[in-house]
Amino acid sequence: MSDIPTDPMLGRLIDGRYEVRSRIARGGMATVYLATDLRLERRVALKIMHGHLADDADFRSRFIQEARSAARLAHPNVVNVFDQGQDADMAYLVMEYLPGITLRDLLKDYGRLTPEQTLDILEAVLSGLAAAHKAGIVHRDVKPENVLLADDGRIKISDFGLARASNNNTATGQALLGTIAYLSPELVTRGVADARSDIYALGIMTFEMLTGEQPYVGDAPMQIAYQHANDTVPMPSSKVPSIPQELDELVLWATARDPEQRPRDARVMLDQLLDVGSMLRPAVAGTKTMVMPRGGQTSGVLLGAPVSPLTAEAETQILGAATLLPTGPGASNDLVLPGGGTVANGAVLAKKTRGRKARGYWLFALVLFLATVIGGTGWYFGSGPGSEVAVPSLVSSTPEDAAARLLELGLVAEPGSVYSATIPEGLVTGTEPGAGTRLGQDSVVQVIVSLGLQPITLPALAGLSQGDAEDTITGLAAVVGTVDPIFSADVEAGVVIAASKESDGADVSAGGDYFEGLTVNLVVSLGAIPAVAGESVEDATAILADKGLLVTRGEESYDDSVPEGDVIRGSAPEGTVRAGATITLTISRGPEPVEVPRNVVGLSWTEAKPLLEASGLKLDYIPFADAPGASNFFTVMKLEPGEGQLVPAGSTIKISFTA
């Protein structure tokens, strides 16, 4: 609607250098704009931290950390960072602008991708992540929204706003960072993140690219987090049977719940991905065209899309074709090459990676293995894994029952607690280590008990803009309910008038102490109803319609100040007025008419003149009638218009006399 205020940043000059052109996207920490660098005359992406976060030292430090983290990387698959600074109370970040779409947009349009398209995107993303991991940087927010697909075929990973040094892997006690759908089990349970957490998120993203859906869904974020911590990610082929087994193994390897069972960093996974690609790409039916961008970049593969003007002159390479035999019970898992030969493929990816450096030493490994088996059998069943027990699932049990259950298994219970929106207060939300973890006798297991909903303090919402109020509510793990726009002559358009709890309607405009999950309904001002007095009926109707109001024609009334046919006033219905209400217009009939005085004819001019002048009408008569002594000799014979007639105010009456 036209009453919603425009973004005040548009057209603004930041730090005397960057002119804001348009808004690209809005996130939890910042808004990204398209801007022009007036000094270098180029387009850039300008990321400006939200104003309500500027006073939070932790958010500001994390924002600056993004610039430092990304600036340490110089890689064709990582979005470049050019500058970082502060303008008044705004912290900003200047990045490379890439016209195109995100991987999320591509998934929304096509649902799921082919294995070949998935391999192309994974190769580019892993190349960028490998550079980050080598520099000691953990991204911590790998998801389709942060994978950019440029119009010229380049694929880059962006948004290192949650990144931090990979050796800083202790829990901070703060809320978990990153998107819940891609959080690794160790981030959910312990708040610990390292390079293997990025690998887990990339495995979830691979599952989504291959199947068109995420492996875990739920009505609440905590339900999804619980599945990440306690369940095993299913194979993509369970959703799409045509997916090759090699990609199943790649996803299961990357999403192992135990970080030790995953690739240690992106370089390890990239090496294995290249092996998988060399086996799967010949299996594409027909041929595949790969567009190579100028400059020797090898990651710019167009995903089956038409060649854009930016790549029209690039070289084209035709790859060979082969057939991938069906998978399933009894089916071979070998690749048939164009010449008729086969290539075996049966090793699990994790074991293949560990064996990369062991090729050529298999005889030595065999001897060592036999010696280990003979000497280790007794250890295994004495004090090794053979004597270990699995931690049971204790979710929703009482702490007493949980402790007794662990005691039966020879484990020691240790109390812990956490706020939970899904498990009632006083019941167990989970354990650390998680269910299924095998432990030796007398090992300590932390039993984590729910403290119920986390308390929050809601600040005053009345007087904030609608956007700031919604950001404040969601930032406190509360929920924005209905937004009711109403007209108000006292509150500026777009500003919150009142707020209330959805559950019982209690007023929370001034804030107060509540709990997470609170749903808050807002009443937002549309501004004052436009004044239409003095406008024509057509203009008044158009003005009110522009505000979403209907118009009806009411009574007509005389008015000395408003011309005939124009609007005297617009009347709104009683009570609260919303868009769609009907405004009643009162129309002017012009000035009220005046009656020509009666019983004047036959009077002397001395008697008639005061009566006529009192009517407010103009008098037209011979001037001699006013001569001294003459008025008593003149008698009114006729009035035009005549006595009793209605004439417009200020009209002229012609008077005839007899002497």
Describe the structure.
With 659 residues, the protein is an alpha+beta fold. It folds into six domains: 13-96, 2-Layer Sandwich (Phosphorylase Kinase, domain 1); 101-284, Transferase(Phosphotransferase), domain 1 (Orthogonal Bundle), CATH 1.10.510; 385-450, Trypsin Inhibitor V, Chain A (2-Layer Sandwich); 455-525, Trypsin Inhibitor V, Chain A (2-Layer Sandwich); 537-588, Trypsin Inhibitor V, Chain A (2-Layer Sandwich); 594-658, Trypsin Inhibitor V, Chain A (2-Layer Sandwich), CATH 3.30.10. It is 25% helix and 25% strand. The strands form twelve sheets. The chain has a six-stranded antiparallel sheet, with helices on one face. The protein has a three-stranded antiparallel sheet with strand order 7-9-10. A hairpin with a 4-residue loop joins strand 3 and strand 4 (42-49). Helix 3 (115-134) runs antiparallel to helix 5 (195-211), helix 5 packs antiparallel against helix 7 (245-254) and helix 7 (245-254) runs antiparallel to helix 8 (266-280). The longest helix has 21 residues, at 362-382. The chain is elongated, with a radius of gyration of 40 Å. The protein starts with 12 loop residues before the first strand and ends with a strand. Its EC number is 2.7.11.1. This is non-specific serine/threonine protein kinase. Keywords: ATP-binding, Kinase, Membrane, Nucleotide-binding, Serine/threonine-protein kinase, Transferase, Transmembrane, Transmembrane helix.
